[in-house]
Amino acid sequence: MTSTDRPVIFSTAPLRGPGLEALRDLGTVICDPWIDQRPLRIYNAAQLAERAAAEGATVLICEADQCKGPVFDLPLVAIGSTRGDPTNVDLAGATEHGIPVLRAPGRNADGVAEMAVAMLLALTRHLLAADRDVRQGRVFADGTIPYQRMRGWQLAGQTIGLVGLGAVGQAAKWRFEGLGMRVIASDPFSPDATHSLDDLLAEADVVSMHAAVTPDTLRLMSAARFAQMKDGAVYVNTARAGLHDLDALVEALESGHLSAAALDHFDGESIAIDHPLIAMDNVLLAPHIGGATYDTETAHTTLMAEGLAALLRGESPANLANPEVRTHG
Prior knowledge:
- By secondary structure, the protein is α/β, with parallel strands linked by helices.
- The protein has 2 domains: 8-107 and 293-326, NAD(P)-binding Rossmann-like Domain (Rossmann fold, 3-Layer(aba) Sandwich), CATH 3.40.50; 109-285, Rossmann fold, CATH 3.40.50.
- 33% of the residues lie in helices and 14% in strands.
- The protein contains 11 helices and 11 strands.
- The protein has helices spanning 18-26, 45-54, 91-96, 109-124, 127-135, 146-149, 167-178, 197-203, 223-228, 246-254, 294-312, and strands at residues 8-11, 28-31, 59-62, 78-81, 101-102, 159-163, 182-186, 206-209, 233-237, 258-263, 283-285.
- The strands form 2 sheets. It has a 6-stranded parallel β-sheet, sandwiched between helices.
- Helix 1 runs parallel beside helix 11 and helix 4 crosses helix 7.
- It is elongated.
- It starts with 7 loop residues before the first strand and ends in a 17-residue tail after the last helix.
């Protein structure tokens, strides 16, 4: 492209908010979000390349579609992945073809942090059971009143341990502090972390997972680590299932060592309906919806617009996933 060319920005990711207007100031925007399709539509690399070519795209923004191989044969000046970690893009391949890749770090931090708070409150205050009893006319089940059946400990005054203090961990920290909880944290990469993991597990009444899955954190919460937690502690994971050994978690719950757990992610994105967790009343399960907010889309659109504007000015944006591309070759 020459300096007078306006890029054609084709997006299969949802775009909204002020960032969308900023993108329109930069080029011609064509948006056909994958998430609006029924049934679900996710392009493989060949399909994405064909569609982007048909739109005349010189900038491609995607979230779920696979960006590799034939996509890199297009005359792209940039690729945007609206994910914190652009796992849908072959970064090495993009770099080899001289294509900068933008990412969206922290786009869903507030949404996921809110989910952690919501799950913990719903779990410890028995909200699902209470709702069920009202709907089923069982308010006075077996000659009792709800106050008898659904007492719990308030969160104020308890200690919550955050494992991971990145964007989501930081967003969760002040929210839990606002509930009156004492917040401690373990993160080898954060100067704000207060505890080692071993010390955190021994001290926390609630353990909330906010780390990324890496070779060092895969199955971080093992049987031995669950055993280190306090008797009656609560485990919350709104990050990734890869952070824990699910069988070990089941054993810790069945034994009574842990009093409750809340999970918003499973390996393979689902859990079998005959899995032991399904029958446990002290477990809250959600299908990976922590970041499912319109605000997440607003945030990633702004990050895409800011990053693309910087690239078009010849600068290296802070959200460039492959900064080596600027000097590659």
